[in-house]
Design goal:
Strand order of the largest sheet: 21-22-1-23
Shape: elongated
Bound molecules: uridine-diphosphate-N-acetylglucosamine
Number of strands: 23
Number of helices: 14
Structural class: alpha+beta
Length: 421
């Protein structure tokens, strides 16, 4: 059974918090370690259940992994891959596990992978990954819940993505790194995690240009070598603490952040009267008591637009802002799972197609609620920090997928959150 959080509002959160390495950068980089038989060390790795599941998957394929969680160093050696079949036991746990398809094809010429699991935020197909790999010469079959792909040798290709999917961009980039010839990928995702993956691959000997723009050129190389790579800070975790400061009318200083990755979030916070200031070592987010937090409209978009992963945090913030906000979700079709639970806490929210219309109320009320997925769960946790009365939040295992000791770190800033196992 999943743990519970008992959240007792305890006023403004204040102090310093060090942001962890990015989950969404670590997972693709771990998949990419399968591209070389030499050991790779990934640094700045957060101790998350998703990371543990990814390591379990890599080990089930024959790779060796060792994680020093206290230092954040994770070493993978994929010298001996003894199967091309990924077990449902692991893949069902996280969607990012599907990212091994490109490396497996490139290294072994075949891959059999169950369709992925992960957060229940929409249908989340993998057609764009498969279309790209097929363009590179892979034969793809879909049988009994498995994707079977084979390609004795992948060839570079010209690929136009119908949508700038983060995962498809990563899958294709990894496969193309060891393909024969040049791959040109257009309309690809430009998220910072894509650039981080390209940096890892280039350090390992790949030839990838243009990552972070909508056209990426990859000249395939014969083999990659082992490297040490530190992943970028987690912009979603940073956004969580930024909204915690805004919601509790507090003052939090975040270190280990990349301000550039947080521009859409910073802009929205400023728009609703929350101060965000760059400091020498990070970002300070604080509330000016003479200004009330006001409503705003938000539309989620691929980077550099407002991130879908932070939509739930802002919905919690808007639930008690002055005025009416409209939040429109354009990336995933089923990402308002927190709405029913927020309404149990007294929020006034109506869903109209892909938009949520939020009438700010002066205060939410603590209630018994459940996290349906990772970011929806974090959004509810944030809402509870500033509600009237105690909230009992179930489904904490979803939150543990993407945050390392979130409750302990919020408590260090003054929150009162107890974990009940
Ligand atoms: C990644 C992030 C996730 C984030 C999302 C969007 C990781 C591990 N996860 O997920 O936290 O919310 O980016 O920023 O990095 N799609 C298709 N066909 C495909 C692939 C995607 O239709 O083959 C659709 C999806 O259903 C979705 C949209 O494209 O509607 C965006 O998905 P994508 O960018 O691929 O997200 P993920 O890589 O799954």
């Amino acid at each position: 059974m999943s743990d519970k959080f008992i959240i007792t509002p305890n006023g403004a959160l204040t102090g310093d918090v060090h942001i962890s390495g990015a989950k969404n950068a670590v997972l693709p980089v771990l998949a990419a370690t399968l591209l070389t038989g030499q050991p790779c060390t990934v640094q700045n790795v957060p101790d998350l259940s998703d990371v543990e599941a990814m390591c379990g998957l890599l080990e089930s394929l024959g790779a060796g992994t060792s994680f020093d969680a206290s230092k954040g160093n994770l070493t993978v050696c994929a010298e001996n891959l003894n199967t091309h079949e990924a077990a449902y036991e692991w893949v069902g746990k996280l969607r990012a596990s599907f990212l091994i398809i490109g490396p497996m094809l490139a290294r072994l010429g075949k891959a059999k992978i169950p369709l992925p699991g992960g957060c229940a935020i929409g249908s989340r197909p993998v057609d764009l990954h498969l279309k790209g790999l097929a363009a590179m010469g892979a034969e793809i079959e879909h049988t009994h819940g498995f994707i079977c792909a084979s390609a004795p040798k992948l060839r570079g290709a010209k690929i136009y993505l119908d949508f700038p999917s983060v995962g498809a961009t990563e899958s294709i980039m990894m496969a193309a790194a060891l393909a024969e010839g040049q791959t040109i990928m257009e309309n690809c995702a430009v998220e910072p995690e894509i650039v981080d993956l390209a940096n890892f691959l280039n350090a390992a000997g790949a030839d990838i240009r243009g990552a972070g723009t909508d056209t990426v050129k990859i000249n395939g190389t014969r083999a990659l070598r082992g490297v040490t790579h530190a992943v970028i800070p987690d912009r979603i975790e940073a956004g969580t603490f930024m909204v915690a400061a805004a919601l509790t009318r507090g003052d939090i200083h975040l270190t280990n952040v990349m301000a550039d990755h947080l521009k859409p979030v910073t802009a929205k916070l400023k728009e609703v009267n929350v101060n965000v200031m760059e400091t020498e070592s990070g970002l300070r987010v604080f509330h000016d008591p003479t200004m009330e937090v006001i409503a705003t409209d938000i539309k989620t978009m691929p980077f550099p637009g407002f991130p879908t992963d932070m939509q739930a945090f802002f919905m919690s913030l808007m639930a008690t802002a002055a005025g009416t906000s409209i939040i429109t979700e354009t990336v995933f079709e089923n990402r308002f799972m927190q709405v029913g639970e927020l309404k149990r806490m007294g929020a006034e929210i109506k869903i109209e197609s892909r938009s949520a219309v939020i009438e700010g109320v002066p205060k939410l009320a603590g209630a018994q609620v459940t996290a349906s997925d990772l970011r929806a769960g974090a959004g509810l946790m944030l809402a509870a920090l500033n509600a009237d009365g105690v909230t009992e939040l179930g489904g904490v295992s979803h939150i543990d997928r993407g945050y390392c000791a979130l409750e302990a770190r919020l408590n260090r800033l003054g929150a009162d959150i107890q974990r009940i196992s």
